[in-house]
Amino acid sequence: MLKSDFTYDLPPELIAQEPLAERSASRMLVLDGNSGQWQDSWIRALPECLNPGDLLILNDTRVLPARLHAHKETGGAVELLLDRLLGEDEGWFLAKSSKALRPGMMLQLAQGDRAEVLEKDGMDVRLRLHQASWLAVLESEGSMPLPPYIHRAPEARDQERYQTVYADKPGAVAAPTAGLHFDQGLLEALDARGVERRFVTLHVGAGTFLPVRSEQVQEHQMHAETLIVSPDTVAAITATKARGGRVIAVGTTACRALETAGQDGTLRPYVGETRLFLYPGKKFQVIDALLTNFHLPESTLLMLVCAFAGTECMLAAYQHAVAARYRFFSYGDAMFITPAALSRCLP
C-alpha cells in the first residue's frame, strides 16, 4: 500500500484561512461508507443524523500556546514547538535552528529561564527547565500553534476559536478540529434529541503536522501522544452498545483514543501513550460513526477515514467536496461518516 494511493487535487483557495463567524455555520458532507452515497448538508443538521440513545465522544484537550522562541548560548535562534509534556519541567519539542542541537546544550528563554537539552531523537529534543514549569512558560511566552497551511500569524481571536467550547485539560499543540463546530446551541439541540456525550482526553502532538515520509504506508511510525479514557466513559459506551445505540467519535483523536483502549477487543479504561496507526485493512473495535474535518492528501488522518469508509468511496467523496467548494482542514467544513461493513469487527 503506497502513500500515493491517498492523494487528491486540492485548489489552495479551498484551504480555510479563517474561522467562520459562527462555529455551527459550517457545511457537512454526510457519507454512507457501506453504500458509497453522500449528501450535502450542514453541521446544524447533525442531530438529525443521530438517534436518541446514541453517544457522542468528544476530546476535551486544551490547546497550549505551544510555539516558543529561544536562543543558544552562542546567540543562535531556536524555534520550539511542543510535542508533548513529560512532567512539570520536562517535555519533547520539535526544534528548528541553523545548526542541530546536542545533548548538554543550554537554551535561553525570553523571561530568563534556561532549558537543557537532555536527549535528541531526529528533529525532537527533550528539554528540562531549570526553574519554572513548562505550562507557566508557555502561557507567558508562547504563541498559538496554528497549522502550517494557515498562512498568517496567530491573532487574538485564535486564542478562543482554535479551542473547542468544552476544552478543559491543557496539553495539546493542535486543536481536535471536528469539535470546533460545536457551540452551545448545537449542544442543546443534541441534548433535546436525546443524544448523550462523554469525553476522552488525547493531547494532540506536533507529529500531527509531520508528513508520511515512507512510500510504503505500513512502514510509517506514528509519534506518541498521551491519552486518558476514563472508567465513566467506558461505562457509558458499554451501556450505549447494550441498548443498541451507536458510539460516535467527534474527530480522529477521539477515534484513536477509543480504538487504543479497545485494541484487544475489550474496551477498558486507559491512561498512557498511543502510537496507533489506522489505515485500510485495520479494523475498528469501538466506534460506529465518525464526525471529522477534511484531511491533507497522503496524511495518516486521510488514511484513517479511508480505513473506516473505504478508500475508493472516501476519495470519491473528497472529489465531490472539492467540486462543491467545501472548505478544507482545521477551520474548514465537516464530514459525518458511517462505516463500510468490512471496516468493523463483528461483536
TrEMBL record:
Keywords of this entry: Cytoplasm, Isomerase, Queuosine biosynthesis, S-adenosyl-L-methionine, Transferase
Catalysed reaction equations from the record: 7-aminomethyl-7-carbaguanosine(34) in tRNA + S-adenosyl-L-methionine = epoxyqueuosine(34) in tRNA + adenine + L-methionine + 2 H(+)
Record flagged with keyword Transferase: yes
This enzyme's EC code(s): 2.4.99.17
Gene Ontology CC, one term: cytoplasm
SUPFAM superfamilies: QueA-like
Main EC class the enzyme belongs to: transferase
Gene3D superfamilies for the chain: QueA-like
Family, per entry: Belongs to the QueA family.
Stated role: Transfers and isomerizes the ribose moiety from AdoMet to the 7-aminomethyl group of 7-deazaguanine (preQ1-tRNA) to give epoxyqueuosine (oQ-tRNA).
The name this protein goes by in its record: S-adenosylmethionine:tRNA ribosyltransferase-isomerase
Organism annotation: Acidithiobacillus thiooxidans ATCC 19377
Lineage, opening ranks: Bacteria, Pseudomonadati, Pseudomonadota, Acidithiobacillia, Acidithiobacillales
